[in-house]
Amino acid sequence: MLVIDHMAKGTESRKFRAGGTIAKKRAADGVVYHVENVVPFAPGSGGKTSLSIVKDRHGDIRANTPERLT
Is it the case that residue 43 has pLDDT exceeding 80? Predict the structure, then answer.
């Protein structure tokens, strides 16, 4: 199952992640990722996105992923 959530609109609220995230993260029995748009994507110029592992319950993804992919 894939669940997609959004971040809070207020910059002060964003540091707490999306609303209800703690309950959603607790319910996940696998991997939880955080995707952040670093440089907005635009036609012809690309962009940049950050993907990080927030939770890896069984350890298979984090253990087999390089710390930084370039």
Answer: yes
